[in-house]
Specification:
The protein is of the alpha+beta class and 219 residues long. 20% of the residues lie in helices and 34% in strands.
Length: 219
């Protein structure tokens, strides 16, 4: 076995664990579960683990991916349950397997979300949101490597739909994961900048699935 891959979920209270803290949490989990991670060589050795597409604090996911290497071969079928038992509540390993495709090949993310409104009618908001995202171009101001700049986020949205529900407006979308990366929070930010009257009072998002450029489920 060379490079191995975990698929895991991060939900509940675990959504507030930052990316750096999650890396440390996973390292401790491997140690508690009795798995010895392989370390890099050189002046400053570090465990060979990496998480694809780091998740924003507060966002949930049922499709997180982490590549790792172990010092010795193990039973991959038994690893998910054994490792989950050594991790905090809200982090559950659902699969472990040998990685065959690089995470650079992830192109699309399926996300679901909820837009909450305190007073505005959900059905009217769902229709207004649908109309807003039907535009060919949605240009917002966002921070880039060169400072603040204008970006058109519409090409990074493959599909998006809004449905009024009992608790708010449900969002279902497929957005670009890499090149360019579209943080789901920018869906809300675009409303705050361009149509504040339909921007939600609160928004939350969950990653549901990852896909390659041909919309095949990424493994």
């Amino acid at each position: 076995m060379d490079k191995l891959r975990l698929r895991f979920s991060k939900t509940g209270r675990a959504v507030y664990i930052s990316h750096l803290d999650l890396m440390q949490t996973m390292q401790r989990g491997f140690a508690r579960a009795g798995y010895a991670l392989k370390y890099s060589e050189g002046f400053n050795p570090h465990p060979q683990i990496s998480i694809a597409l780091p998740l924003s604090v507060g966002a949930a996911s049922v499709c997180e991916l982490m590549d790792f290497r172990l010092k010795e071969d193990v039973d991959l079928a038994a690893l998910p349950q054994r490792l989950t038992a050594a991790l905090p509540e809200g982090i559950e390993v659902t699969a472990a397997y040998e990685a065959e495709v690089k995470c650079a090949n992830i192109k699309w993310l399926q996300i679901e979300g909820l837009f909450e409104y305190d007073e505005r009618p959900y059905a009217a908001m769902a229709q207004a949101l649908t109309d807003f995202y039907a535009q060919d171009s949605i240009i917002i101001t966002k921070k880039t490597k060169r400072g603040m700049g204008e970006t058109d986020i519409r090409p990074a949205i493959r599909s998006i739909a809004f449905t009024a529900a009992e608790e708010g407006v449900c969002v279902s979308a497929v957005i670009s994961a890499q090149e360019p990366t579209l943080n789901p929070e920018l869906l809300n930010e675009a409303l705050r900048q361009l149509r504040p009257e339909i921007a939600p009072d609160f928004a939350k998002f969950t990653r549901i699935e990852t896909f390659d450029s041909e919309m095949r489920v990424f493994r």
